[in-house]
Prior knowledge:
This protein has one domain (6-282): 4-Layer Sandwich (Nitrilase/N-carbamoyl-D-aminoacid amidohydrolase). Helix content is 27%, strand content 21%. The protein has nine helices and eleven strands. The model has no long low-confidence stretch (mean pLDDT 94). Residues 7-273 form the CN hydrolase domain.
Amino acid sequence: MNDSQTIRAAAIQISPVLFSRDGTTEKVLQAIAKAAKAGVQLIVFPETFIPYYPYFSFVQPPVLMGQEHMRLYEEAVTVPGPVVDAVSRAARSYAMVVVLGVNERDHGSLYNTQLIFDADGTLLLKRRKITPTYHERMVWGQGDGSGLRVVETAVGKLGALACWEHYNPLARFALMAQHEQIHCAQFPGSLVGQIFADQIEVTIRHHALEAGCFVVNATGWLSPEQVGQITTDEKLQRVLSGGCNTAIIGPEGNHLCPPITEGEGMAIADLNFSLITKRKRMMDCVGHYSRPELLQLQVNLEAQTVMAESPDSNFLMAEIPLDPSLQPTP
């Protein structure tokens, strides 16, 4: 990527079609087509947008959420699978890099997964949230370090984290150390209220400043009718509001377009890569401002598995001579 090049990015604030993988996927495809008409080259969708974020787990006790958890299993995305194929075709058709959050089903487990598609439709990265937060631990399994990677795309070097992974400074530093140019952040939205929106603001602007990169952040949104579908308890409905802050931040920590804090919409901005060098000239946390002889990060980037083949699957037990005193008497 030429440091003087400019690309156009979009962060999408959008509501899912609750309880429908196919319906929400169709909204993704429509948003990609609409963004293409605006000249967008990179589009970022909210956290676990397909089929929908598991809001039920925030308002229901574990003993009561079995039915909704099972419904999420039924509507979850498999990788590879039809949803991946459809988004891949759209990315290729519009020559657009797509960052999409999904609930991924891998046999008997669900994961909070981020997918990065290149402009030719190639799935470059499938990463799983390394530590689900609080109520999410009843829904999703844990990811591993194989997803803490920056990938080279048609629009530059991309890294991605979901929600409170941004409060893990070592996870963020792992991406910074790989010189990400655009950081793609995803949050659920319509959760906890204004304080959550304020926290998102602080989080994404700080990462842009510290990493010297662009941050494209997408949050979801629920309509009042959808909140009523999730819970009829008016007290609980109040916690399924606010918390939306879809924004694009420059390397100097400034908004590059007006943020979206309510309703559906598309935040669009042009990213001029010369601003990265301008920021890092002053402070490069993984370059001239680092002190590797004092502070270093060690990270395991290997994918983990529950079963690994022995290096020598045909090994023989070693013959250990017995103590002569224990030999039977002839």
